[in-house]
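Section 3.1: Structural characterization of target chains.
Under the original work plan, the team committed to producing a structural model for every single-chain target entering the pipeline before any wet-lab resources were allocated. The record below documents one such target. The sequence was received from the expression subgroup and is listed exactly as submitted; it comprises 305 residues.
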Amino acid sequence: MNRKLKFDLDIETNALLCPNPNEFYSRAYITEDVVDNYRTLPGIKSATKLANVTFDTLLKASTCSFTAPTDSLDAVDVDVCPLSAMAQICQFDIEQSFLSLQMAQGSNGDFTVASFMNYYWNEMSLQIQEEVELIRWQGDTASEDDVLSLCNGYLKGLLADATVIDVNNTTVTPTNVLAEMTKVVVALPARVQRRKSELRFFVSSNVATAYEIAAASGNTQTYITTPLALTFLGIKLVVAEGLPNDHMVLTRKENLIYAFDAEGDAKALKAVNLSDTVAEPYLRTRANLKVGFKHVNGAEIVLYS
């Protein structure tokens, strides 16, 4: 005898408020290009010490005596800044928007819409990504800007480090961009120049645009059909949206440390309908994260500023 079984599955409306936390944070501040372009330190709750060793010349002529080298080992303190991304939307604003047709009838029902929440979480993660990128480079706790004052970024540390190689900048145009980029490469110590697979050439948006125009000027095909590979003399170019105009940084990616705490972030990602708790018609969201930016080996870093 054949039996037919029928199942019914009811999904709680609150489930529609919950994004995929791994996807959210991967978009927000742990993207693949970040891992490829920086030395990442995950799972940092407050602060940590990072070992940093610098070797002198290792090879010597073979003799019975031992020549002591001048290698140095030190520890670099890496701190992270606790941040929270907070937002809220009023029920009545949602009701008066294009989402009204997708909402349940009645003024006291659930006012969340699944399709909108997917869009909402995506836009929120992209906004966090943009603000973290600004802090990454221009962050300064002494700044009067609300976002930049949240944490110190790379530029503040690089400008304060006397060992960093400074190259004076100018207004970069398609006419002079190749010459200016060449100055940065030449300034890098020769022992580091040849380690091209480890090098990253961080450039501001206007420098990247000038470079693309200059590189394409001798290649009509690049202007029209073929996308230009962002490399310079075999070094990977990284468009750093957070860098101010006419700025460049050239170094090994291991010298720029990006610390963050991702292990517990999934539990910290929340969306709450306040009408169910304190009788206020708001949808309130919060995402907690920690970020920190530090550099090491300043003598291997060229700053064009």
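Confidence is low (pLDDT under 50) at residues 5-18, 97-109, 263-269.
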